[in-house]
């Protein structure tokens, strides 16, 4: 079972930037499509972004397009989420997730590996 560990969360002012990272324990990382989800207090977990095995395909929820960038480094078994132009509504716990399907999946139930989450707080 692959283990995922997120890092990089924190407190930032509106308009600022953060870079989230997710490290995977598996040598098969290059055969996992990866996703980022977030969950704000009192809300359901929401899809943010996904990236294919090779990193050649990416997908974003409309609310973060143009502000967030997902990337991966298969040599280092890591996936990143660069978040620019942060807004207070981006405040949430951010989770990385992995799936063996080589597809850009937006449903949380399609992912079978999850990290513990990292808190992102954006102040106005």
How would you sum up this structure, described in words?
With 124 residues, the chain is mostly beta strands. It is built from no helices and eleven strands. The strands form two sheets. Strands 2, 4, 5, 6, 9, 10 and 11 form a seven-stranded mixed sheet that branches. Strand 7 and strand 8 form a beta hairpin. It starts with a strand and ends with a strand. The model has no long low-confidence stretch (mean pLDDT 97).
What is the number of beta strands? 11
- SS summary, helix count: 0
- Indicate the multimeric state: single chain
Radius of gyration: 13 Å
The helix-and-strand class reads mainly beta
Termini separation (Å)? 39 Å
Strands, helices and their partners?
Elements: E1 4-7, E2 10-13, E3 18-24, E4 33-39, E5 46-51, E6 58-60, E7 68-73, E8 78-83, E9 92-99, E10 113-114, E11 118-123
Parallel strand pairs: 2-11
Antiparallel strand pairs: 1-3, 3-8, 4-5, 4-9, 5-6, 7-8, 9-10, 9-11
Characteristic terms for this protein:
124 residues, mainly beta, seven-stranded mixed β-sheet, four-stranded antiparallel β-sheet, 11 strands, 0% helix
